[in-house]
Amino acid sequence: MKNNAAKPIAMDHAVQAGRLSEVLLKSVAALADAGEVEAAWRLAGQACVILREADPVLARRFDALLHCLTRKLKW
Predict the structure, then answer these.
(1) Domain segments of the chain: what residues?
(2) 32-59: buried (b, 16+ CB within 10 Å) or exposed (e) per residue?
(3) Contact present, 52 and 60 (Cβ < 8 Å)
(4) pLDDT tens digits along 4-40
(5) Which helix (H) or strand (E) segment is 73 a member of?
(6) In which element (H, E) is residue 24 found?
(7) Dist. CA 41–CA 61, nearest whole Å
(8) Beta strands per DSSP E along the chain
(9) Which of 23, 42, 48, 57 satisfies CB 3.0 to 4.6 Å to 62 for a cystine?
């Protein structure tokens, strides 16, 4: 008997990375809004470095967030 259950459609890796990056961007921004600006800044920096070569467009989004968060830092 054949299983007719719907199989999940495999997404392209670039689409998955983009969606995951959106979640991470929102999470990091929420962390900063909750008062954890330095932790958010560090996470955004790590994501930017990881994505720099793999996906420069996504890396620029994290870079933009870094610049925004830098203004909020209180060293």
Answers:
(1) 35-75
(2) beeeebeebbebbbebbeebeeebeebb
(3) no
(4) 565 556 678 888 888 999 999 999 999 999 999 999 9
(5) none
(6) helix 13-33
(7) 13
(8) none
(9) 48
Residue with tokens 């998955």: 16
Q: Which residues contact 17 (CB under 8 A, 6 or more apart)?
A: 54, 55, 58
Start-to-end Cα distance in the chain:
65
Token pair 């467009």: residue: 57
Residue type, 56: P
Q: How far is CA 56 from CA 42, 59, 73, in A?
A: 18, 5, 25
pLDDT digits (tens, 9 = 90+) for 3-12: 556 555 667 8
Structure token pair of residue 23: 């979640």
The neighbour count for residue 7, using CB atoms within 10 Å, is 7
What does pTM read for this prediction?
Answer: 0.78
